Amino acid sequence: MNAANRQPAVRLLGGFGLCVDGDWVTLTRPSARVVALLGLTGHRDRDDVAATLWPDAPRNAATPICGRRCGG
Question: Could you tell me if 44 and 37 are in contact, meaning their C-beta atoms sit under 8 angstroms apart?
């Protein structure tokens, strides 16, 4: 299997890890939370991710935070 066909791998047990194209990627803790949530639950819209991970933040503040974490 060549690198273009590899799926990213997420390790959640025994410590967080993300492997892309055979390389382990270092993420900030908030970014790792986003990746872990999406890895466990599948596709979710940005507002839902923000409300789940930052429930105490006002929606108008949490969604931009999520956008920066999600790369969008």
Answer: yes
Tens-of-pLDDT digits for all 72 residues of the chain?
Answer: 455 567 888 898 888 899 999 899 988 888 888 889 988 898 888 888 888 888 887 766 656 656 555 555
To the question of pTM greater than 0.70 for the whole model, the response is no
Distance (Å, rounded) from C-alpha 8 to C-alpha 57?
A: 30
Any bridge partners for residue 61, and if so which? Answer: none
CA diameter of the chain: 45
- Beta strand spans in the chain (E): 9-11, 17-20, 23-25
Q: How many CB atoms lie within 10 A of CB 70?
A: 14
